[in-house]
Amino acid sequence: MSMRHIMAKSLAPTDSIREYMAAQEKKSLLRFLTCGSVDDGKSTLIGRLLSDTKQIFEDQLAALERDSRKHGTTGDDIDFALLVDGLEAEREQGITIDVAYRFFATPKRKFIVADTPGHEQYTRNMATGASTADLAIVLIDARQGVLRQTRRHSIIASLLGIRHIVLAVNKIDLVDFDQAVFDKIVEDYSRFSHNLGFQTIAPIPMSARYGDNVSSRSANMQWYSGPTLIEHLETVSVDEAAVEQPFRFPVQYVNRPNLDFRGFAGTIASGSVAQGDEVVVAKSGKSSRVKRIVAHGGDLAQAVAGQAITLVLDDEVEVSRGNILVAPASRPQVADQFAANIVWFDEHALLPGRSYILRTETDQVSATVTELKYRVNVNDFAHEAAKSLEMNEVGICNLSTRSPIAFDNFAENRTTGAFILIDRISNATVGAGMILHSLRRAENIHWQSLDVGKRGRSDLKNQRPAVFWFTGLSGSGKSTIANLFEKKLFASGRHTYILDGDNVRHGLNRDLGFTDADRVENIRRVAEVARLMADAGLIVIVSFISPFAAERRVARELMADGEFVEVFVDTPFEECARRDPKGLYARALSGEIKNFTGVDSPYEAPENPEIHLKTLGRSAEEMVEALELWLNERDIAEDQYDSGGGI
Known about the structure:
It is a single chain. This protein is α/β, with parallel strands linked by helices. 28% of the residues lie in helices and 27% in strands. The chain has 18 helices and 28 strands. It starts with a helix and ends in a 13-residue tail after the last helix.
């Protein structure tokens, strides 16, 4: 036999390898996270699990021994936490900052574990790790007992839909393996968590450092007869009933490589589907039947939750990314108003009335928190009144979206019931939400079709609607310039109305103060009124400080293209304070007035306004002349609509 044939034979896959690979594919997968307070041993436990399940190569072990001598905190012993704490800052400080994911397997099951930070300022990172987990290992230092962060993480785990808990009482060796200490901690945790809705709580005494009750039973605790941690993780029955839930198929991509093929690609979130099944488009209610189920390797007769497929339907029904194909007998909710739990991530507080981008598994839409019902105290689950949510806080909110979305309650489906909120300016993810239910008001309110529209109302007035949005500091001259500008327009026969900040606060907004949350709501209401007035065919002049760029952007998006004209009345702070027409600057600078724009509340100047009026050394009349020049340069007729919009 030639050397070539010998090498080919030796390199050919054996039946045992094929059998091994097939067995690995059939194993169930458990996703879990470790959480708890600082220094409870989360990273050490994961390192021990990786070591005991033979997931560490010899060269990795040698490197770990070297790192343990350099960074370790366990004396001459191997510091297993270094297997997980990969960031240099984590190793130097001996803490976990980011979420670290690790994979390991035993003969019975595969696992993905998330090691989450214990420090309170990284609670949002813990929420990220919990969002996909089936089970949480809550570690408790036997010397410390149930702490504030233990309760915080347990409550967030509950809010994020985790129903199985392992209560890992760690460092039991440091209290001489005392059963009384263990029993007291279990009693305290059970009393605290009885209303959190966990299906199972499995208490296990252990020492992650020395391996007691992690993968093998401890000879030091004859009084404990329960399973080791590995035994419990291998056998715990988590909700693997996604296949039994109603069919949900979020459409991620419309696949149309040629005129003969049109398929909808995505991953089945729950349930199953077979060729010939009837499916319904969630948002439109249109139905069709499944013609083909296309997968890698060929067509399937049936597909189940977790599989990535492309569905080809019998009919040319309209389905786009963001929609969901569902079972006809069990449809999701479709609404533009709903209640949700929100975990806030950002250093800038959540403000009701501010517009964010809401993103679901496949959909994206503008959304506003219309009401912060209460803040959840994540230490005792108490409901507290609040006007905003700070970083790492959790609240129950009502939200309104620009257009309806399809969703399930988070408790029923974690994939179709979850969303994130994105800041419209920075594009940063600022919060994560879990939908509780749609609001009844959304079911009772529908758009009423009207025969007379904006075009007809505008034609009657022989003008085109517009919103001139004057923004600037108090004392910048906004109201004076806006008033003169309206007089000019009115004298030329235009139909106008001024919405002035002070005047509106005497009526519509008299219930609002000057906190950031109240300022956001102030502008939201005025923007809606301005939109209605523009719909009536008026030229609306809005004169408000409107300090935040986000709210001015929302006001712009409410109007039709070209209708919103931002006018930045640019007067330096020093000049405004010198003028001080209402005596407010002097009081604010002396501390008598709080939340005053430009003093102890920020003003975000427009970056690209349509009209930039620099007022220093110029009169109000000159400013109005600049406004008229801006209008005349555009040569827009009063009685014609063109492609550009505006006035």
